[in-house]
Amino acid sequence: MAQSWLIVGLGNPGPRYETTRHNVGQLVVDELAARRSETFRAHKTNSRTVETWLRPGGDKLILAKPNSFMNVSGGPVAALANFYSVDPGHVVVVHDELDIPFDTIKLKIGGGHGGHNGVRDVAKALATPEFPRVRVGIGRPPGRQETSDWVLDPFGAVERKTLPILVSDAADAVEQLIAEGLVAAQQKHHAPRG
């Protein structure tokens, strides 16, 4: 039986942040929408959404990008989950991850927030940390650069060469997570890349 899944790309709103490391989650949901030739539209939950399917006749996908800033993502995510009657186990949060090297993808369900304020706020708003996450590695800043500056900087020139492949692979990971479950997606996407 077909089910509904809410796929949320975390990030910050507006052109200033579109190409920053912190917005890689939104780049992934953009990729999922582009694969289906869909365009995001304003939604009353302070988000932009696309309603589509994993495959024709299959599970329903609600792709979403909150209009709020990263640290207060929880309100729009909880409002979307409520609006579409999606339980937290079917809310897939796609986000940047400092503790994973760039060009690496990790998937998990539940656990801590690892200092990620967007994930922390979503867990608080959903009243549980037990939701699937697709974590897209951005790595830690080099030298003494502040973490807050690093995540709000655009990807570097070398990273930009690989970024489209990373975003596409993360979108594949979302689709596989929904179609085949967490373990199958982990087995494929946690393997060394190359």
Could you explain how this protein is built, in words?
The chain has helices spanning 24-35, 74-83, 117-126, 147-152, 157-180, 182-189; strands at 4-9, 41-43, 47-53, 60-66, 91-97, 105-109, 132-137. The protein has one domain (4-189): Peptidyl-tRNA hydrolase (Rossmann fold). It is built from six helices and seven strands. A hairpin with a 3-residue loop joins strand 2 (41-43) and strand 3 (47-53). The chain is an alpha/beta fold and 194 residues long. Helix 1 crosses helix 5 (157-180). Belongs to the PTH family. It comes from Microbacterium marmarense. It is found in: Cytoplasm.
Quick structural overview:
By secondary structure, this protein is α/β, with parallel strands linked by helices. It has a single domain, classed as Peptidyl-tRNA hydrolase (Rossmann fold), CATH 3.40.50.1470. The chain is built from six helices and seven strands.
